[in-house]
Fold:
Amino acid sequence: MRAFALAAALMAVALAGVTEAQAPAAPGAPTGDPSRGKTLFEKTYRCYACHGFDAQSGSPRLVPMTRTQAAFTTYLRKPASPAMPTFADPPLQDLADVYAYIRSLPATAPSAESLPVLRDVLQRRANQP
Amino acid sequence: MTDSSRREFFKGAALGAASLVTSTRIDAAAPEAQAAPAQATAQAPPASAAYGSDFMVDVLKTLDLEYAAINPGSAFQGLHESLVNYGHNTMPELLTCLHEESAVAMAHGYAKAAGKPMLVVVHGTVGLLHGSMALFQAWADRVPVVLIVGHQRNPTGIVNRPHSAQDMGSLVRDYVKFDDEATTLERFAESAMRAYRIAMTPPMGPVLLVVDAALQESRVPDRSALRIPALTLASPPQGDAVAVRDAARLLANAERPLIQMQKVGRTPRAWDLMLELADTLQAPVDVGTYGSWQTFPSWHRLYGNGGPGYTADVTLGLEVSDMSAAARAARTSGRKTISISAEHLFQGSNIHDFGRYADVDLAIAADAEATLPALIEEIRRAMTPERKAAAEARGARIAAAHQQTQLRAIENARFGWDSTPVSVPRLVAELGEQIKNDDWAIVSGHQFTGDWQRRLLNFDRHHRYNGDCGGFGIGYDTPASVGAALANKKAGRLSIGIVGDGDLNFGPGVLWTAVHHRIPLLLVVHNNRAYHAEVMIIQRMAGSRARGSGTAHIGTTIADPDINHAQLARSYGMYSEGPIENPRDLAGAYQRALAKVRAGEPALVDVISQPR
Structure:
């Protein structure tokens, strides 16, 4: 039972890590510059504050980025979640650059099984009576 | 020392004065006693109290106060001199602090780990005001601290006058349970006993004794004419028997009971009782986001909210300050809520930490810990064989759901595992790997590390976690960690504080105190170079006003220049590692720092971290 539970949990997370196909930019939308986007992400709009510098150690994770650039822009202009700040004033080019930067970041994480420290924690938790 | 012999808070009058006066003293050969060779050795005390402050020391020595945290001030120069030379600097032993806020916060952390108060002595007005913030936190956390403030009631000079007040206690009366200024030595003795008793009676809290400098420095013509009354602690209030029986029946007949706890886990006894209650009911235990102590094992099969779809039909709140949301939801759907809390004995407060009014179905004004034995017994009586069978089946379902949830939560630590700056889960997990064979205790709160401590570390003993600050004020974690580590030193426990860079910089002088008094403690600095919650808050505020999306760092970040906390620690004489930016360097840094701590010294590891 314990082994099953551990395996099931690992499978669930592995599935969550599957990368979606790269979404094309909308016609007429600015083309993003990932290098400039990094500066905006880290120094200007400080997206890292919630999402992490890697866009995956924070919450919610931004990679793999599954939104199209248009959907990304729309969401930032009017977020559905009250926890997400509204970015109404940044120019479209800035948002395109941030989007391009996020798309350039590694979207995968190592499996728990490959990390001895984490594997040990999982095993000890699974062995709890 | 075992769990059952520590944190014996609140056993009530049964323990009383006898046990208090026979408590252990600091080992004369302990490193603290050798810590300051440059200081003069305290002289053997005179045969009998010659001064008022000598008599005050006689009184304080009956109160099992091992330590007195001080920052010196002339308003208590008489008492200071008596503590050192008449009292021989033992029971209490002075702890030199570089700020009164550090002194009181140390006492706060110490009390939660040791199960008894520390004495703090501060200067008139200025020292009291410096300490007032930490006093507020202890008050909000319902933790006992015995505070003495010197008072030059008849100041003679330009320097002394600001250290006097018409009503000294009024400066902090909003966050002490009791304050008094005795006018005679006998009244001081009575007031001290009363203060200690009040501090230790649930709901607990800090108390203040104002001590006139002239009274301290007065001559005692005949010590035998001065009586010190016996200390008798008050037994904590237990819930009314009829109400407890009603609560037990509701819980025993519930299909989906839920236990919520907040400030119930003061003692190892409470820990055992909580396990017994959860096991009897086979009910999930929700400890909430923040807490004053670890109240339930974090990897226990019943730890959690019951899993997806588990909607409680009866919710029991134990020392939960605000059950209003649960009560409102229950009212609209016919579900029941019960609150057992010493908070119902409310006697007034200027601070709104009592939350919103909760229209629970049953409110029992009592100390939850003291009431648990009777409640458990009544639940057992009310459980028919059918109800027991239903509870067992429920417990199995909950355990399965919790395990799935918790394994998935742990597994999420892999995201950002190799990132620079270091991810918070990796910071915690690598630490856990290094201490898993120690008898460890996390002596800081976890307010700014998400829930990663409880996910990745097995909080399987009462002392594993010393809780948050109570008042949600920054600057508690570092000094409270030092105070708790002092208590844990006697128990042979490995103390670890995970503190924010913002927290540490409120009063870094406490690092010197830890070094000076040889207090073994590993401080891990979660250094995200910002008051990070505030960055996000300002981002949201600016966003809601559709302006300034790029300005959230102004006034919220701690960069340019970056602070090197390892270098800072070294300047106080503390061993340090860092700043660590590469997660692969963590394990080695922890190992080297922990070697120092295990040898009896404090050490610090500065980790440049992801925001949260």
Notes: Confidence is low (pLDDT under 50) at residues 1-45 of chain B. Chain B is about 35% helix and 15% strand. The CA atoms of residues 1 and 490 of chain B lie 8 Å apart. Residues 385-411 of chain B form the longest helix (27 residues).
